[in-house]
């Protein structure tokens, strides 16, 4: 009886902890994003981020985004890349344009772990806006447009809305954005 009770307790514990782990996942591109996986391992499963994943591979940034970080990635969707002028993505992924592609992609990455709460606090502390330095060295400006809507602006004044917040990763957080942000 003692072993049976221990087995039932262990089984219940596994079910309960599994339920909590499942509740920490966020669906992106039709797939669950698991907080125990890194940015790359989750992104490759998102049907909405196949262009971003291909670009990250072409730029040679896979190892960087698999490193401990932490990083906050403002991840443009396939639709965001498709909205660029015709031929832009095909041109960027060519080997001779690797430096430009790397600059654009690293412009979407901020060192540190910025979830909605931390971004919101930074915006409020900055009097309505926050500037975050990206991995490529330039800044993104964040403002609020409503109670739970953060807008990200690039140095050229173009803006992107965050459509999915707080996709927690083992080495950071992903914020899904609806536009590709461009450095100078």
TrEMBL record:
Domain of life where this protein originates: Bacteria
Domain FAS1: 36-181
Pfam families per the UniProt record, alphabetical: Fasciclin
Keywords recorded for this protein, A-Z: Signal
Species annotation: Paraburkholderia sediminicola
Coiled-coil segments: none
One GO cellular component term: extracellular space
Protein name in the entry: FAS1 domain-containing protein
InterPro entries membership: Adhesion/Biosynth-related, FAS1_dom_sf, FAS1_domain
Signal peptide (residue range): 1-21
Cross-referenced PANTHER family: FI19380P1 (PTHR10900:SF77), PERIOSTIN-RELATED (PTHR10900)
């Amino acid at each position: 009886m003692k072993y049976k009770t221990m087995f039932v307790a262990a089984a219940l514990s596994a079910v309960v902890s599994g339920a909590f782990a499942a509740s920490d996942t966020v669906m992106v591109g039709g797939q669950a994003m698991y907080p125990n996986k890194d940015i790359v391992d989750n992104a490759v499963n998102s049907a909405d981020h196949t262009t971003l994943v291909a670009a990250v591979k072409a730029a040679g940034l896979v190892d960087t985004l698999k490193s401990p970080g932490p990083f906050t990635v403002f991840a443009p969707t396939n639709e965001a890349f498709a909205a660029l002028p015709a031929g832009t993505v095909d041109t960027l992924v060519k080997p001779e344009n690797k430096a430009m592609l790397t600059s654009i992609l690293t412009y979407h990455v901020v060192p540190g772990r910025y979830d909605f709460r931390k971004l919101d606090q930074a915006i409020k502390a900055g009097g309505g806006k926050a500037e975050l330095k990206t991995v490529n060295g330039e800044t993104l400006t964040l403002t609020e447009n409503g109670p739970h809507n953060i807008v990200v602006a690039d140095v050229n004044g173009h803006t992107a809305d965050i459509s999915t917040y707080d996709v927690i990763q083992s080495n950071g957080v992903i914020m899904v954005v609806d536009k590709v942000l461009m450095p100078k």
